[in-house]
Amino acid sequence: MTRRFSATALDDALVRRLLAEALVAPSAGSSRGVDFVLLDTPADRHNFYSLTTVGDWYEISYQNETDGILSAPVLVIPVADPERYVQRYGRRDKAASSLSGLPAEEWLTPYWLVDAAFATMQLLLLAEDAGLGALFHRLHRDPADWLATIGAPDTVIPIGAVALGLPAGTSAQRSLTETATIKRSTEERVHRAAW
Ligand SMILES: Cc1cc2nc3c(=O)[nH]c(=O)nc-3n(C[C@H](O)[C@H](O)[C@H](O)COP(=O)(O)O)c2cc1C
Q1: What's the pTM?
Q2: Atom 14 of ligand 1, nearest CA residue
């Protein structure tokens, strides 16, 4: 993840290509219930951060940085829509599925979140491949107010935000060094038949 960005604008065609290619990530039942909201003007990014952060994180800590997270010229918000999955699995060709007719609250695995994570990961990899820096970060509060300002239904779920831009500073400056110490070996995390 990159946490220091230059404010240099990104080529719009490049951003459009990355978004299009990320959206071909696998989707349960081809429900395609993941959308991206592209925020690539200072006003739209300001509106987003004003309505999705708490305390002084935005107003004081980051707004004054010249090459921090908020300098990233492009923000992409991956949004999952449970309704599209419920509708898709209600169609005739899914009648035999145990998910057919199941309300969103009863799905053991919320596939809209799985798909949104897949598309987001694909976007991160595509960005890296294109020589950009990228950061996935969470939303710090209920996004209902922000969703209302963009005219989105309140049933959709923004899973976080992807900042995109040219990396600034050295890679050491861009990293969160304290998290590098939290390690679990592959041996510990791959369970051969038994946990
Ligand atoms: C679900 C999720 C939420 C995250 N939220 C944040 C966040 O709010 N702020 C942030 O700086 N990084 C966030 N990250 C990025 C992780 O902190 C990052 O992947 C990890 O620290 C490794 O960092 P590195 O790539 O710089 O080594 C998030 C990652 C995931 C998968």
Answers
A1: 0.93
A2: 137
Judge if the beta carbon of residue 136 lies within 6 A of ligand 1: yes
Taking only the tens place, the pLDDT of each residue in 181-191 is 788 999 999 99
Q: What's the pLDDT band for 68 if we cut at 50, 70, 90? A: confident
Decide: 175 in ligand 1 pocket, CB within 6 A: yes
Pairwise CA distance, residues 173 & 160, whole Å: 23
Establish whether residue 109 lines the binding site of ligand 1, counting it when its CB lies within 6 angstroms of any ligand atom. no
Short-list 160, 149, 155, 14, CA closest to 75: 160
Confirm if 23 and 121 have CB atoms less than 8 A apart. Answer: no
Determine which residue's CA is closest to atom 19 belonging to ligand 1: 1
Task: Return all residues near 3 (Cβ < 8 A) that are at least 6 apart.
Answer: 68, 69, 135, 174, 175, 176
**Residue 110 has what DSSP assignment?**
-
Q: What is the pLDDT of residues 160-171, one digit of tens each?
A: 999 999 999 877
The residue nearest atom 23 of ligand 1, judged by CA position, is 1
